[in-house]
Amino acid sequence: MQALRAFEAVARLSSFRRAGEELLITQSAVSHQIRELEQNLGAKLFVRKARSIELTAQGQGYFDSVQQAFDLIRSGTIALRRHAKKEQVRVSLLPSFAANWLVPRLARFTTAHPDIDLILDPTLRLADFGSDEADLAIRYGDGSWQGSENRLLMTESLTPVLSPALLERGPKLSEPRDVLNHTLLLPARPYDWEVWAEANAVDLRAAQTIKLSDYNVVLQAALDGQGIAIGRLLLIADRIRSGALVQPYEVVSSPRAGHWLVTPKRLQPTEAATAFIEWLTGEAASTEAGR
Question: What is the pLDDT of residues 35-59, one digit of tens each?
C-alpha cells in the first residue's frame, strides 16, 4: 500500500519531490518505492526525463485503476461512517486560522449542528485526502494546489504591522521602502510579504529577516517588538483595534493571498461535511460583507 500511495502521488503530481513532500518522506524514499513497484509488476511505469517524468502507456492505465481503487476504499469508508450515531467532520487547517478566525465562531456551528462531531487538525502541511486523514481543508495561499477542488473563501488584506514600542523607537516608517530599515518577520512561505512588496515597488532581497515556521509565532514576535510582520487583517483586526499592533501603511488585497476551502476531487462530501461547508462559506461571506 505504501508503494501504491507513492505511485498515485507521483503520477498525480508529476514529481517525485512533490510526492515526497505530500507523503512526508524523502524524494529518494519515493524513488525506491516506485522502483520496487516496477520490479514487482514487471512493467515500467514512468519515463524519466532530464527535468520531468511522464507515465508510460502501461503506467497511465495502472494509474487509472489505482485511483478507482482508492476512490472505492474512500467511498466505503465514508459509507461506514454514515452509520455511526454521530457523524464526524475532520478539518485540516493552519493553526493561525484556527486560533484567530475559526475557533471564536465555532459555537454557532455546534449550536446549529449538535449531532456533528467536529475534529480540527491544526497543521502546517496540506491534508492527504488519499489516506483519508481529513474530509476537507482550509488553507492560505493562491489556491494552486493540485489534485483537489479549491474554492476561495476570503481574500486577505495585507499590510505591515509592528508593536507601538518598535514604532516609537524607530527607524521611522514614512514610506513603504522604510520597512527595509527594520527586521522583517517571515512565515515559512512569505508570499504575503511578496504580494505587498510588489504592490508597493519594494525590493525585499536586501532586507534583514527572521524566518519563523507558523504565523502565530510571527504574530507573537511582532507583539514582542522583534520586527515587522505582514498583517493578515482577517486574523489580527482585534489586535489592531486594541492597539497591540499598529498599521503604518494602507492595505493591499490580492487573490494570491486568500483563505481557501480545499476538498478532494471526484468525491461527494458527507452530509455532515456539507453542513460544515455551507456554514463555513456563510461565515466567510458575512466576514467579507462586514469589512
Answer: 999 999 999 999 988 778 899 999 9
Nearest CA to 288 out of 154, 192, 157, 159 is that of: 154
CB of 259 closer than 8 Å to CB of 153? yes
pLDDT over 80 at 133, yes or no: no
Q: How far apart are the first and last CA of the chain?
A: 48
Indicate the fold that domain 156-253 takes in CATH.
D-Maltodextrin-Binding Protein; domain 2 (3.40.190)
On whether the CB atoms of residues 271 and 264 are closer than 8 A, the answer is: no
Backbone angles phi, psi at 213, to 5 degrees: -70, -50
Would you say the CATH fold of 156-253 matches that of 2-80?
no
For helices 27-41 and 16-23, give the axis angle rounded to 10 degrees. Answer: 110
Q: Encode burial over 63-96: b for 16+ CB neighbours within 10 A, e otherwise.
A: beebbeebeeebeeebeeeeeeeebebbbbbbbb
Class of domain 85-154+257-289: alpha beta
Sheet holding 148-161, edge to edge: 116-122, 87-93, 136-141, 252-264, 148-161, 228-232, 183-186, 208-211
What pTM, to 2 d.p., does this model score? 0.68
Residue owning grid cell 490580492: 254
Q: 56 — phi, psi (to 5°)? A: -75, 170
- CATH topology for the 2-80 domain: Arc Repressor Mutant, subunit A (1.10.10)
